[in-house]
Design brief:
The protein has two domains: 154 residues, Ribosomal Protein S5, domain 2; 121 residues, GHMP kinase, C-terminal domain (Alpha-Beta Plaits, 2-Layer Sandwich). The protein contains eight helices and ten strands. Strands 1, 2, 3, 4, 5 and 6 form a six-stranded mixed β-sheet that branches. A four-stranded antiparallel β-sheet has the order 8-9-7-10, covered by helices on one side. Strand 5 and strand 6 form a beta hairpin. GO terms for molecular function: 4-(cytidine 5'-diphospho)-2-C-methyl-D-erythritol kinase activity; ATP binding. InterPro entries: GHMP_kinase_C_sf (IPR036554), GHMP_kinase_N_dom (IPR006204), IspE (IPR004424), Ribosomal_Su5_D2-typ_SF (IPR020568), Ribsml_uS5_D2-typ_fold_subgr (IPR014721). It comes from Tepidiforma thermophila (strain KCTC 52669 / CGMCC 1.13589 / G233).
Amino acid sequence: MVERLAGPAPAKVNLALDVLGRRSDGYHELDTLFLELELADHVEIVPSEAPGLEVSGPRAAGVPAGRANLAWRALECAAFGAGADPTFRVRIDKQIPAAGGLAGGSSDAAAVLLLAAKLWPQLVPRLPALALELGSDVPFFLTGGFARGRGRGELLEPLPPLPMHDVVLFPPPAGTQAVERKTAAVFAKLAELDSRPPAVSSVLELARGGSLSTEDLVGANALEHAALAVFPWLQEHRTRIEAVIRSPVVLTGAGPTWFWIGPSGSGDAVAHCAREAGLEVIVTRTAAR
């Protein structure tokens, strides 16, 4: 009898994101560069006579419970695919800010699928399809690392690992109002705005040189100008961050988390300046794989 299965659920940033158009199925055709971070939730599956979901940790606030949580739906999907009952309890120690563009919920779901595949090995060939059923970002976290994602993001091309970089994340300030279905709202706003030139290929070329800075990524996220229109406080937050750290920051995904990236060893100084000014920061690094 399995007593406990556990694993990490890492965050990601998008180094670049192009939106190529709306598809007939309602989804958008994307071209993006996913980059895994060391920052991670911790996910456990334990046998239980009272199946369900427990969320704890410093970033638990705002995380949905029950079937609204992708991690629980991942366990249900896995159990159904294996012809088993989901007689397990999912425990998540949240370290990744919720609904911040870092895909913590998608990563939790992928972690559950990977753990479930240890329980039910017959699921392994079906993991990519199960992941895509749960969400467009979920397939990336089955392998992580550095990858180019096309289609909805599920057509993944693994890329050579980047050298270690420091990453400083700037979550939304306390008290800012959340936007309901924020990703859908950002894509809807994008349809009203002028399109931006593609950026993925140029950022990928810079990445092949082995070193990236935030300056290389400015303007590389096609969703950024739409997110600025959706979140009324987002521009002011960026302006404050950039004035303090004297460097640009860029948005990950649909936001609203800003991030800075630079050489290994340089992030602590950036974070120190930001904290001295009263900004909330999370210091992490790119994952070593």
